[in-house]
Amino acid sequence: MSDVGVTRTRRSLSNGAWGALLLIAAETALFGTLLGSYYYLRFNSATWPPDGVELPAVALPVALTGALVLSAPPMLLAADAARRGRRTAAWLWIGVATVLQAGYLAWQIVLYADDAATLVPTESAYASIYLTLLLVHHAHVAIGVLLDVWVLTRLAGGLTSYRQTTVRVVALYWAFVAAVGVLVVLTQVSPSL
Amino acid sequence: MTTLGRTAARAHVERLDRVWREPRGVLGWLTTTDHKRIGLLYFVTALAFFAAGGVEALLMRTQLIGPDRELLGPDAYNAVMTMHGVTMIFLFVIPMSTAFGTYLVPLMIGARDMAFPRLNALGYWIFLASGLFLYAGLLVGEAPDAGWFNYVPLASKTYSPGLGIDFYALGLILNSIATTAAAANFIVTIFKLRAPGMSLNRMPLFCYAFLAVSFAIVFALPPLTTALIFLELDRQLGFSFYDIAAGGEPLMWQHLFWIFGHPEVYIIILPAFGIATSIIPTFVRRRMVAFPLVALAEILVAFIGFGVWVHHMFAVGLPQVTTIYFAAASLIIVIPSGIQLFAWITTILTGTPVFKTPLLFIVGFIVTFIMGGLTGIMFAAIPFDQQAHDTYFVVAHFHYVIFGAAVFPILGGIFYWFPKVTGRMYRERAGQVSFWLTFVGTMVTFFPMHVVGLLGMPRRNYTYGADRGWTGLNLTETIGSYLLGAGLLLIVANLAWSRFRGAPAGDDPFGGDTLEWTTTSPPPPYNYPVIPKVTSPYPAWDAEDREEDARRLAAGRQVLERGHETPATTVLDADYDETLEMPAASPWPPLLALALAAVVVMLLLGHWTTAVVFAGAALAVIAAWHWKEPEAA
Amino acid sequence: MTALDPHSDAARAITTLWWWMFAVACVVLAGALLLLGIAWLRRRSPGFPLIGKSEGLASGMVVTFGIVIPAVALIGLFTVANFVVADETDAPAASTPLTVEVVGNQWWWEVRYPGTPAVTANEIHIPTGTPVTIVATTDDVIHSFWVPQLNRKVDTIPGQRNRVLLEADEPGRYRGQCAEFCGAAHAEMGMYVYAEPPGEFRAWLNDMAAPARAPATPEQRRGRDVFLDNACAGCHTIRGTPARGVIGPDLTHLQSRATLAALTVPNDARHLSGWIRDPQHVKPGNRMPRLDLGDRQHDDVLAYLESLR
After folding, report:
1. Which residues of chain B fall below pLDDT 50?
2. Which of B149, B274, B370, C127 is the most buried (most CB within 10 A)?
3. CATH number assigned to the domain comprising residue A80
4. Mutate which of A24, A33, A34, A154 to test chain B, going by most B C-beta atoms within 10 A?
5. Cβ B425 vs Cβ B524: under 8 Å
6. Do B454 and C47 touch (CB under 8 A)?
7. Helix B250-284 × helix B205-237 angle, to 10°
């Protein structure tokens, strides 16, 4: 794959990037609401988690989130490389990030299945909000991995100004998901802190 | 223009006609990405839902015409009451505002389409699907019946065991996707697609209103979606978000709902403010007084509206420090509304008003909005709220603000832009009569509700006894509702007749100040043959710039005729940035809407696997949507 | 049942607040109508004296009437309403001479007097001139306890005990109604508050605390047996008998009450008979099923219930 020069220059943020930012704004409101609901339920409960429910583990979720956060700089580097017309570099950076993100997702799915087996949402608001918050976050990661596959496929066919925006949009998305991941994991483990 | 100039101009116009032509017939409408066609689709569909909501209203009023009537039993009444609220808010007034914005924003900013034309179409098809889904519930006898704000525990599976609440929750989740998509589209369009020279301080106030509203939507809808997801998890899978026995919180529903619900009411009235600020300068032949203050006020209303939601919960038993804070915030929001009201009144006062139908409706809006706003202020007095809450006094208040501050401007706007959209004039005399019928009908229907509420009549009562002292007032309200219905029917008749038999309107029958009045009626698919030159907030009154446009057309400059092209400009100053190639007709939006609707139907029926399959189909459609790109690799 | 006819200090404070707000609202509306009227009268003359000649003055008018004057008025309203009046209407922090517990149910009110065995439904008796704390809650859906002539409303929320103050100036019967949509029969969930002189109140309370009268005639005895042998005892309590149901109201002193079905129909033999025969016809959607008792059983149980004074 050789690098391709790209001609378009624009002064302001592209429409695609603006659209992505607004989607991120809406999803920020979504996660804000989910996190707010967690704390609302928590501070209206005498015991949290309720009696009989184990405190959440801290080390593994935090470490995994560290991996997710580490996948954001490669995505941003990919966007930068694409902007400069360096297609191979962009493709490789996205590849690195995808490996980290897919690995994160796979491991989190295993942990989630475990949680879903032990926590009983029909019996506690704690289990309800815990499982829902995590599921929504992991769904966002899964969509992100799909976006990675899409970008890798498109880039294999060549680099255009439109695809520069595509890489940037996906990079912005991952920056958002990583940031949310930090807030989610801190909330998830907060009863144990 | 010289003969040579006219020939050259015509050649450019013919090329644009060819490039922007859409498929004919039903297929053309199904696959359209033309913002004007989508606006018309929104308009007609919203109007149909307005009629449905109106029938529901007349059913309720007829049931309440006297004591102990038996037209609707409690179950039927509660379903009609719920559907009336849901229809009017989610299926009429918001989509109707979207209709106005979708049709007019690109025209007003001198663009050829919205920033994301296919997303625009998607929003419409999802809206249609959500409305059909909600009414499917009514048709199969499983309508939601816990009120439009659907409090738990009443709306939980225990106390509402049927499918009605599931229709409500899933239908509104689907609906919220459409609303949010439209909002994102408006923001990017207004930021990026303004004609070169239309800096932010030269943008019409109508567009400021839509900008403010769109940001409000982006942040206000997710709390509702979250609340609904929690509700469905509780109902379908037995989760415990709202179940007090399991550590859940019934009040959490109220908080989440009203964190959405209060900004929602500003989302409802802000576009109408934009319509008012379009009509007033035209009909009083004067620029808007204090333009920057009005723009700022529109943005402030959207912003402060997020900080007042607990004023819907003053009777719930929250700590005094909480309620006091929210009462204060609720009073602060009066100020930006007051700014706008006085700007409008002062503009009318110092201009030369021509009281044609559009301006009449705006004056009716001002009077009704002031009355509704005054009772709203009263609710910020917590002890008074705690008497009047959940009585007909509230029903009066919100019908005055919604009807007055949203519906009247919409009606005025329909008359104002009817000539532009159809190319024909409505009948003025019938228009004025319909205004008076509607205005008097509104007053006779809703004013007595203040009184009957203070006399103790709670809201959401399917009947009342003869000994309560409410009979005469209810009778009056019902008569008023029929008057109001007659006024609205007369409006529809006027427009329907004029659509086919009205006198030709020409480009600019009213001497309007914004760009849409400089193009033909109706506008061609590409809106403007030449991207307009803009140097002030009232471009249609800038004769020199319009002459410059004509010269450019003859010379072939700023025509952008190589494809579906429109310029993108910088956010603040609208300096030319690049030329965008926009998508033409596409089947993907309706197909994606269909896939999402299928997911929702499967979730309703509890067929989880099938829902996942349709979600996969939706992802496939999204991939197909993005397959073809504007640039070859 | 109107907030405009107050019979307590709290309700009076709110009503006075209302009339002041109404007066100011009328002035504001009149002013706006006046300006619009002037605009209509002057519609043929372009421009306007003074403010029409200067953008600055026109903007000044917007600032004065849109910002400054409203700000002053609103601060005044806020202070008076939410500090002065609210003090009158809030339930006192310290305890009051009497506390009454009210539990909202679909679609009736359970009334208890803590410290006594007294339980009744849909009617609250309080002594005049005495601050009474109503503690309101629910075990099913959200209702709202509201007696407008005596004070503001307070919602009943599962898991919460909300308090509102009732203090009647003089004896009387004050009507209330559920004020938060609670399902099918929400419109038929009323209540009475009887304020009576303290001596009469105490006598009433003593009567309510006593168990049910024993049946005096064979018909009443048979009626009691019908009650205990059928579904009745599964939903209703009659203290002094094995009937301990909690889904419907306590019937121990049914005949002390003026109405049936939470103020839906008067409490007399004809209506009680109709209610037992077909409850859904009287109050559609309510939880009481048709029992389809034979005529003799029906008459017997009616006689028994008529005896529960």
Report:
1. none
2. B274
3. 1.20.120.80
4. A33
5. no
6. no
7. 160
